[in-house]
Design a protein that fits this description.
5-stranded mixed sheet; 31% helix; single chain; Peroxisomal Thiolase, Chain A, domain 1; globular; 4-stranded mixed sheet; alpha/beta
Length: 322
């Protein structure tokens, strides 16, 4: 069973926070053997944003959280749980979510970090909707936040061109209509492929850096994701062509192209912000959601499908009716 039972959870507010520092493809040409044309052709990325000196993951998460609360019209003390999807916490412990909970003054909330690669914020959304459906929470703040600049290998042109920093957030609450809210979810792992994308030390680095087998990740996603999405839609009693809008993890435009072609779905039904931000990992889905809402791309009555994949390898999907 992948369908939610019990109360329906709806989105009450969204936000994003993008740090000020910009690194363009031309900037990267000066530090690694690459060029703008090569990067754009293979990834779709033109620039990415990075946290300023001293700016931590919790700082970005907090700024996004404040804006999401403002958008929802709620005060921090009305929140029951703070969930943060991240792969780049300030520290392993205390968690980013605990820091944000304290910074906000969300005195009635618990706090949990969720690490599931780039699927982290989708996983957090799934947990939030589950908690509301079961009745243990009424209002949940979900954040995706990353500061990758300190875990990037700036000598590796295969990874340093891809990632950027940022944060996005949304607030979930109990829906006043059974028709509106999250309807189904599926989270899946392919742990036998855990070595495709890792954070680890090697002989050249004292601190861990991102390591990725790019071609293998590309093949994995284009092979596994279309089947996963089709099965999710089937189990949710919808067809891919019935989805009005797709909130898709922003990893690579070629990956998005490939998956959509295999689903026979038009890219007009999604929003692409990779050229501006690059891959912001667990923050990607939340930033994309906010920009879609802000641009009026998600309308009342729309069926919306959230899709993400990430290190692990992890896969996730959520169906939402606006």
């Amino acid at each position: 069973m992948i369908k939610y039972m019990g109360r329906s959870a709806k989105i009450l507010g969204t936000s994003k926070y993008i740090p000020e520092k910009i690194v363009t493809n031309k900037d990267l040409e000066k530090i690694v053997d690459t060029n703008d044309e090569w990067i754009v052709e293979r990834t779709g990325i033109k620039k990415r944003h990075f946290a300023l000196e001293g700016e931590k993951c919790s700082d970005l998460a907090y700024r996004a959280a404040v804006l999401a609360l403002e958008d929802s019209g709620l005060a921090a003390d009305q929140i029951d749980m703070v969930l943060v999807g991240t792969n780049s916490p300030d520290t392993v412990f205390p968690s980013v979510s605990c820091k944000v909970q304290g910074m906000l003054g969300a005195v009635n909330a618990g706090a949990i970090d969720i690490q599931a690669g780039c699927t982290g914020s989708l996983t957090a959304l799934s947990v939030a909707a589950s908690g509301i459906a079961s009745g243990i929470w009424d209002k949940v703040l979900v954040i995706g936040a990353e500061v990758f600049k300190d875990i990037i290998d700036w000598t590796d042109r295969g990874t340093c061109i891809l990632f950027g920093d940022g944060a996005g957030a949304c607030v979930l609450g109990v829906s006043d209509s059974e028709a509106v809210g999250f309807k189904s979810t599926r989270l899946l792992a392919e742990g036998t492929s855990h070595g495709l994308l890792t954070l680890e030390c090697d002989e050249n680095h004292v601190t861990p850096v991102v390591k990725m087998k790019g071609n293998e990740v590309f093949r994995f996603v284009n092979t596994v994701m279309p089947k996963f999405i089709k099965k999710f839609c089937e189990d949710s009693d919808v067809k891919p062509e019935d989805i009005d809008f797709w909130v898709f993890h922003q990893a690579n435009t070629r990956i998005i192209d490939g998956v959509f072609k295999r689903l026979n779905v038009s890219q007009d039904k999604t929003l692409i912000n990779l050229p501006e931000y690059g891959n912001t990992s667990a923050a990607s889905l939340m930033i994309t959601l906010h920009e879609a809402v802000e641009a009026g791309r998600i309308k009342s009555g729309d069926k919306v499908c959230f899709v993400a994949f990430g290190a692990g390898m992890t896969l996730g999907a959520l169906l939402y009716e606006a």
